[in-house]
What we know:
The complex is a heterodimer of chains A (139) and B (123). Chain A has 139 residues and is mainly alpha-helical.
Amino acid sequence: MSDPSTTARPRHINSGPGVVLLVVYVVFAISAGARAVFQLAVQFHVAPLAYLLSAFSAAVYIVAAVAIGRRRRLLALTAVWIELVGVVAIGLFTVLAPQDFADATVWSDFGSGYGFVPLILPVLGLIWLFRVRESDTAS
Amino acid sequence: MIIPIAWVLGGAALAWALWCGVSAIVDQAPTYHHRLALLVIEVVALVQALLAVVLLVVQGGRGAGAVAEIVGYLIALVVALPIGAALAHQERTRYGSVVLAIAGVTLAVLVLRTTQVWEATRV
């Protein structure tokens, strides 16, 4: 506690910058999860496609958070790749064909409703997961 | 929600997040004082959540969906800092301070959203 040195420590995917990544994934796992449960339970009939996508994105965030927290690097990589493809695909789709989405999801308009964090997060996640490859093989 | 408490809570969460952020910038791990402030803010969050639940019960009138949404937000409001503290606990580097700063900003956003929903569903 008295020595806040940031260098020369064994690096795991859930330590150092990884713990920052982890806390953001936990926040998104909880918020996307709660949002999905609420939408599916209370207003499913309004926009089934958007709400199923909300549930899917929530599941991806939950898997990513658990994988990073438990140092499952390959699982984390898989989830983060799916997340990146998802946010780009849904982002493009909502921009090009907005009439097909009756309500917003976390990934609509590239996550603009969440300060574009959903778009930036998987990029940072991939950079981090590739950078720690050498020093962490736990899976 | 007790609006004055919401202002105090949101403001305190942001100020504390800023402090943690500055600590991270100057390469400082979370200290005893960061944690002490966290504890104080958490007590305010608990008081706010408790009073909000009491108001929900006493006032009545809101629909089941609105009550569920508000209670969900109140739970998030109460667990935000403890989750941040737990994640930062093992990380005795500047990144621990970053984690606390994110928890503080998250709490402030939650207070804002809860208050918005509270006002929008007011009866």
